[in-house]
Amino acid sequence: MVNAAVLLEARDVEFAYGTGAPVLRGLSLELRGGRLVALLGPNAAGKSTLLRVLAGSLRPQRGAVHSAGGALLALPVRERARRIALVPQALSSLPLQTLEDFVLGGRYAHQAGALAATRADREVVARALIDCDLAGCEHNLLDELSGGQRQRALLARALAQQAGVLLVDEPTNALDPEHQLAVFDLLARLARDGRAVAVVTHDMNLAGQYADEVLLLARGELCARGAPERILQPAQLVPVYGSRLWFGSFHGRPCVLPARDAGQAEPGLPRSDQGPR
């Protein structure tokens, strides 16, 4: 582990939209440099809201988020962006921009005013495009990209921020298997290089293969945390997701699959004591 320092911390955070019921309930966690944390939980568990609170995009009604020991929301917006990058699930709208210009937007925290991009900025962007397998597409307009390419464009823009904390919301849900692995390979490398990486995912198997720690959320509460080998087990997951899950292992890592009949393997599926081949 390159850096075990706490880079971002939430303390007793509670959040609700308007006058609605709390979405996050007294939630506390730490994100440390050098670690990749996977956030799991069913739909409406509060995972995406948690990332937005951690990034400072939403203000909690109770509790606080701290960055390097100080209150996150007390920091100027540019300083926050130098420390924390948030990758949303998708673009809410498509700006009329080339891919290169869109990713250059991630450099605003490092620029003074509205000055034109420097050579150093463009070098950072070029590296981010390579890392996200988008080199050669830089002059394409965003609406000319596929859904998977747009998802990787969001990640490239966040990489261009060069922040120490990377918060990533379901980065693989529009990607083919090879690009899913490539994205998690990249996130794991960034963690090894010292960043704190937190990724929301519904893919328990990618979490099992790559995460240093898994946090399990349900109804806005943190109900379990620990190594993948401890969390991706029936005792932890069945109370949250229900019993229609198949549990096994793959190369020593936990493997969890949705199963129409979890008690009887379908043709072509291994028994739970064998694991996928």
Spell out the blueprint of helices and strands:
Layout: E1 6-15, E2 24-32, E3 35-40, H1 47-55, E4 62-67, E5 70-71, H2 77-83, E6 84-87, H3 99-104, H4 119-131, H5 147-161, E7 165-169, H6 177-192, E8 196-200, H7 204-210, E9 213-218, E10 221-226, H8 228-231, H9 234-241, E11 245-250, E12 253-258
Parallel strand pairs: 3-8, 3-9, 6-7, 7-8
Antiparallel strand pairs: 1-2, 1-4, 4-5, 9-10, 11-12
Structural class: alpha/beta
* Name given to the CATH homologous superfamily of the largest domain: P-loop containing nucleotide triphosphate hydrolases
Count of DSSP-assigned helices: 9
* N-to-C series of helices and strands: EEEHEEHEHHHEHEHEEHHEE
Main sheet: strands, sense, barrel:
6 strands, mixed
Silhouette: globular
Task: Give the domain tally.
Answer: 2
Low-confidence residue ranges:
264-277
Provide the β-strand percentage band: 25-35%
| First-residue to last-residue Cα separation | 31 Å
Radius of gyration: 19 Å
Biggest sheet strand line-up: 6-7-8-3-9-10
- CATH fold-level name of the largest domain: Rossmann fold
Report what the structure shows.
This protein is α/β, with parallel strands linked by helices and 277 residues long. The chain has two domains: 6-242, P-loop containing nucleotide triphosphate hydrolases (Rossmann fold), CATH 3.40.50.300; 243-277, no CATH class. The chain has helices spanning 47-55, 77-83, 99-104, 119-131, 147-161, 177-192, 204-210, 228-231, 234-241, and strands at 6-15, 24-32, 35-40, 62-67, 70-71, 84-87, 165-169, 196-200, 213-218, 221-226, 245-250, 253-258. Helix 4 (119-131) packs across helix 5.
